[in-house]
Amino acid sequence: MKLSTFRALLIGATILCAALPSGAAPAVPEAAPSTAAAAPASPAADAASPAGSAGTSAAGSAPGTSAAGPAGGSPPVTQSPSAADTRALDEEAQSLKKDVVDLNRDLYVLEEELLYPANTQVAVFLSMDVGSFFGLDSVELKIDRKEVANYLYTPREVDALMKGGVQKLYVGNLKTGSHELVAFFTGKGPNDRDYKRGASIKFDKSIGAHYLELKINDRQHRLQPEFEIKDWGE
Amino acid sequence: MRRLRALLAPLAVIAALAVACPAGAARRESDKLPPTRVRDLNFGDVLFYYFQGPDKDLEAITRIEAYEHWGLLSHHRPEADLLLGSLYLDLGLHNAAGAIFARLLTPDVPPGVRNRAWFYLAEVWYERGYLEKAEQSLARIEGRLPPQLEAQRTHLLSNVLIRLGRDEEAVRLLDHWQGPPDWLAYARFNLGIALIREHRLADADRALAAVGTLVTRDPELATLRDRANLAIGYAHLQQHDAAAARPALERVRLEGPYSNRALLGMGWADADLGDYRDALVPWLELQRRSVVDAAVQESYLAVPYAYGKLGAEKEAASSYENALTSYGAEGQALDAAIARVESGKLLTGMLAGNAKAGRYGWYRQLKTLPNAPESRYLYDVFAGDDFQAGLANYRELGEMQRTLTEWSSSMDAFGDMIDARQRAYAVRLPRADRLLGSGALDRMQRRRDELASRLERIVREHDVAALGAPDQQARWQRIRAIETSLAAAPHDAKTDGLRDRLRLVKGVLYFEMDAAFNARVWRERRTLKDLDLALHEAEERWIRVERARRSVPTNTGEFASRVAGLETRIAALQVRLASTRAKQGDYLAQLAAGELAEQKQRLAAYRVQARFELASLYDRAASREDQAQTPPAAQKEPPR
To answer: Model ipTM?
Structure first.
């Protein structure tokens, strides 16, 4: 939740509480209700003016710049950008960012098609379901007895897996024919003990991308984690 | 199959849309949604990046777009698109996001999902100053939202209306609105503000007093209470009703963010009532506070003004001199701050101080202010949506520059890879062409077919000798030859004896071969099956070779042209990124420098006024001295 602030410029007789409702005060902790943008509007500039002018008018020479502006009337040294400037720049930034996003996609597509042609591609995914009995630290992958990946997980990645993300752990190229995938899972098992388990699968690679999924599930009735490999085929 | 607890069906919708509200809360909100299943692993991969937080948003966007390009998200198309829309929002691409939502939020999408989408989009548009679009989005919400969200919607709409200057509509919206208690306070406050702007002070007083007298421990509501009291206090002061202003101003907390302005107002209320001695109390208190604050700066003029009214001219003069000293020092500090901002140090410090903030996503607002002299003048500017959004743009454009630089270095490697592939093709292609032109596979297939038909004939004719062992076949041939010879020989005892012996030998041999015939047929059929398998594999390989051969000329050439095209685009975008980022930096510096310049001007005006008042004081004192020294007769002369 962002605390709303209103920008107040007290210039003698006028409090300028600009109606900028949703300004987030930096370094102010967020709090309920989560209003975000829906913070209240602020007192309007002219409506909620202070009475400096009251004293001023009575005295004739009251302090404060009752004219609500610099006495000298000189133009500001630096003008703040106008709303039109702000919007134009924002539109330009949006358009540019979209172009970069599109380019990024095209580059990614090129890289993947160049490095992993669909005919020979094999991809290994990893997913976790629940994960109460196993805290994942790392996974080591071997294909045909050759280590192809050894991945150490960050807490954020584990969290993403727990929420339902599926990691594309390895992408490579394989010839058609029979192959064997072996995966070793390392982490903390039940009772927070070091835990290492393996799983393997033999699969036949033919023409076309081949997908395999390493699945970490909780086996409730045994209070143990379960490690499986599913062959999604082509 | 995977079960997700993140998103509802359609899967990504709410998680997607939730991004449009404060990111943390939104992503948490997705946890409440019913489970669903990932049917395309690649969609799970997108979610893996999405769930890692805003740092990975660009990666998630790239993957969604690439997987859609390859047609790998067929089971999750609408969800993926909506997720993409939300990620666009997070990256500040609200126009693109709005287009996606407008396209996808059809009546087929559940109303609850649709409404939330429009609400969050409205929020983003509002925060970025697109008020008309925000209003249009809110108008697309059908029916009522859940209570909390409904309250937020009303609140957002009232803010939009007030900012658009349509106060009367805001009043109509809020006048009899009822909702959750916390939101009711905000609604009353906004109603009060709209009423003040409509010059309906009595009604505004009632609305704001309700907020201003709230009993709460909630720091946010306490702040709102201060704001309400300050607003109504100043509104009364403006109407020269100091007596009505005082109670409201007295309710503002002494240590809150609005206390300075309240103290200043209190002093003015007392002064308005002619009680200058009481006015000095809050104003002198203000002088103990930081002179950065405008209210404190004004108190430096207010105090001597009150002294003057009380006839304490000596104290007044001393206070004015004190004001001039303070203003002078503050003016110098402001000059230094403006110089730092204009030299570009503001952004450097800001980015360094927030290095841990997300790389992408305009919700990644400043967590800490740079420890720089100018920071204390710029709290409000830093807090403003324009600055926050501009800073996010600035940071993201920088990250995109870095991303493209990384890609740029990869392009050389891609080029090398394509060259190497072309060289390899140059060696292998003639070999492949020779093989493909040889018709070897067809010949093998024909031979296999001949073999199969031969075996069928043997089985059909029960030709046991055809499958006999080599020695058996040799013996069988000799027997047949002897048989032929004997067939031409005359029948006598000797030849008949030979015929009997030959028949016996032939019978024994036939028996041996017949006994082994079925096993040999089985063995031959198995051999044929193995041959079929080998031939099938050879055929597959042949097809792959043919396919690869066909794709060679276009494949490598196409890759080469794609690499060249992408290199050009990278170079062009790098130029645009540098230019727009520089503009964005200038814009932020202008926002800050503009604010500092305004403060400087205000300070300059105060200095002029302080000098003028001080001069007037001295003039009056001098003229009194003159009068005192002039003979009484002269004192009776009328002033000029």
So the answer is: 0.74
